[in-house]
Amino acid sequence: MLHLLYNVSVACYVLLIRIAACFHPKARSWVKGRRHWQQVLAHWRSLHPGPLCWMHCASLGEFEQGRPVLEAMRAENPGMLRVLTFFSPSGYEVRKDYAGADLVMYLPADTPAQARRFVALLSPDLALFVKYEYWANYFFACRQHRTPLVVISAILRPDQRFFGWMAPFWKKVLACVTHFYVQDERTQALLLEAGFANATRCGDTRCDRVLTVRDTAKPDEAVVRFAEGRKCLVAGSTWPADEAILCRWLSGCKARGEAAAMVLVPHEVNHIDTAEIEKNGLSVVRWSQRGSADLRGTDVLLIDEIGHLAALYGCGQVAYVGGGFGKGIHNILEAAVWGVPVVFGPRHGKFAEAGQLLAEGAARDIRQATEGPGVIEACFGTEGKAAGEKARRWVEVNAGATARILQGLRPFGQVK
Question: Exposed e or buried b for every residue in 190-214, given b needs 16+ CB within 10 A?
Fold first, then answer.
């Protein structure tokens, strides 16, 4: 009965997405991207036989967690094919041309028939699901196909569906997992309490990823020139509620006659209205127009292209990570690795790294929007430098999850 209820909920979700596709571009991409998937996959597999590793990610953030493992596997076993699937358009559209995979595609909706058909056509030798992607019918299909199924960077909380009234159903789903590589002790303890001892605590693979980005990134000359000689805040993955706080901080700096600037990287490029920023008495230049602009005389450099944020955090003395006044903060490790203090909003309880950085004195959280400018300002100066050093050291100390996961995959015979 619970499985039937799950299948009905998936069918209702798909129906709602199809209705929303008439009005919403992201929903339209979700639907369009899954058309003719069987023909595409069958044709591709006929041209690419051989051992195959399949990695599935919800979106872009989860991809950044899975990416170090996928690339490490490629380095050790270049003969194994790699297929990468996404649930969300925000992940697929950005990484559809990712060179580290032989095929990138959307994951078809999790109906029993589609899941069985997908796994049968793909015939993977190993399936890797990242963080919190638990699609029941795909898990059952992997078990039926006898495909080793590994969840990497897993993190669970007591209030999740696995431990509520549908726990009997989800216990059957979790039983399909060959091994869990979890981020923290709490997740390992929750799994053990539910009867699953096949979990290894290895940390967060994002630490490995952000270190790689930091060590290979080249500073953009335009941004360096923009920030030089001023106290500069880099704000990433922001939403309107974040931007209101940020503009008040920068306006306050100008009112005091201080040399200050902000690099602003919104979560959704299209939602930014530069007129709203200019209402605060601030001048704005878009990244795409930086070649002809007077950057030294500009207050806000608005990054209106995707893919630059992780490298830009190192251009400022303080980083602000958005989302904390909405559903939850975005990736704070991308900022912390640069050795700068990290500021974010109040909704960070689901993110273990946020609590740990706060406990270390490497980050500051804003509880009320009205206190935001003051919290940001306090992060500049000597105390901010000390906090930034703690942030950098925390990331470096917690690196190494990729190597631990890779070592654990070898017994499955997939990495040689």
Answer: bbeeeebeebebbbbbbbbbbbbbb
Dump strand ranges (E) for 300-410: 300-302, 318-321, 342-344, 363-365
How many angstroms separate the CA atoms of 118 and 234, rounded? 42
Amino acid of residue 20: A
Helices 136-145 and 167-174: crossing angle, nearest 10°? 40
Tokens at residue 408, please? 């654990």
Distance (Å, rounded) from C-alpha 4 to C-alpha 175?
Answer: 18
Please provide the distance, in angstroms rounded to a whole number, between the alpha carbons at the two ends of the chain: 42
Closest CA to 261 of 247, 272, 280, 275: 247
Which pLDDT score, from 0 to 100, does residue 292 have? 66
Q: What is the DSSP letter of 327?
A: T
CA–CA–CA angle 248, 254, 256 (5° rounding): 105
Segments in 234-317 forming alpha helices (H): 240-255, 274-278, 309-312
Among 19, 17, 30, residue whose Cα is nearest residue 93: 30
Please give the DSSP secondary-structure letter assigned to residue 79. T
d(CA 389, CA 253): 25
User: How far is the C-alpha of 186 from the C-alpha of 403, rounded, in Å?
Assistant: 21
pLDDT for position 275: 82
Please state the separation of Cα 351 from the chain's center in Å: 12
Look-up of token digits 């209106």: 304
Q: Exposed (0-12), middle (13-18) or buried (19+): which is 292, by Cβ within 10 Å? A: exposed
Tokens of 258: 């201080």
pLDDT at 416: 46
**Do 325 and 344 touch, CB atoms closer than 8 A?**
no
Separation between Cα atoms, residue 117 and residue 141, nearest integer Å: 9
3-state secondary structure of 328: coil
DSSP class per residue in 108-126: PP--HHHHHHHHHHH--SE
**pLDDT under 50: residue ranges of the chain:** 415-416
Single out the residue of 397, 246, 242 nearest to residue 316, CA to CA.
Answer: 246
SS3 at position 151: strand
- Please report the pLDDT score of residue 414 as a whole number: 52
Structural tokens at position 198: 């096949």
Instruction: Catalogue all structural domains in the chain, each as residue range(s) with its CATH number.
Output: 2-203+400-412 (3.40.50.11720), 216-397 (3.40.50.2000)
